[in-house]
Amino acid sequence: MKSKLCFRTEANTVPLLRRSSQLIHNTLFTSPQHTSTEHYRHELKYLISWADKAELTTRISPILKLDPHATNGGYFIRSLYFDDYWNTAYEEKDAGVLLRKKYRIRIYNCSDRSIKLERKKKFGSYIYKEAAPLTHAEFDAILAGDYDFLLHSRYRLCQEFYTECVCNVLRPRVIVDYDREPWIMDAGTVRVTFDMDVRAAVGSWDIFDATLPALPVLEPGKLVMEVKFTEYLPQVVRDILPPRAQELTAVSKYVLCCDKTAYRHEFEYWNET
Fold this sequence. Notes:
Elements: H1 2-29, E1 40-49, H2 50-60, E2 65-66, E3 75-83, H3 88-95, E4 99-108, E5 111-123, E6 126-134, H4 136-143, H5 148-151, H6 156-167, E7 171-184, E8 190-201, E9 214-216, E10 222-229, H7 235-238, E11 247-248, H8 253-260
Antiparallel strand pairs: 1-6, 1-10, 1-11, 2-7, 3-4, 3-7, 4-5, 5-6, 7-8, 8-9, 8-10
């Protein structure tokens, strides 16, 4: 019996080593695919009231315009966030770690027309976002724990996501929903968004199910305003921003939704001995 078990372990190790070797080869010798021309950006967050939004919308409308991708003034965003066995993404955000990252799969309006695997890195107020497209079938494979296709993807992000899933037990953590109203400048480098009705969807990891129940995470009458820009923020935009005292520096939609759905995790398994 002992030799039989050893034989099985050795046999299972061979394909794992082969996949690891291939991943290292791809990492060293394959040119990465860049999916965005705009990477490093500043990000400012504000918690505002609906009255603040009405005033700010009136002030920014002569300067910025609604994003042409927004139909009827906005769109619905749903993101499935992942975290590892130790809840590193949550713990690092909660502890205020300066350099951190999060993985998520994002869709719009509960449609599978655009499915993106994203990794958002943050260093202070600077953000760096990478994205790679997925198909509906590939999303289903990820939920089923079938990650092999990621290793053979031409996108570096997918290959690194495979490593996280296999080595760090990266798994779905929470679904974050909200309605976004996006404003942009003609130059395209300044983006002001109003994220309304932020909520945590529960009951399933099926992000395409529009009927998922959701729990609100912000206090009534509040929403999140985000300002993103590259290099510099024009003074004409800076002058209309809320006072610095209202800036959100320690709260994220991901953390809020994790806290709201903490009841689903009966114990903190990473603290168990």
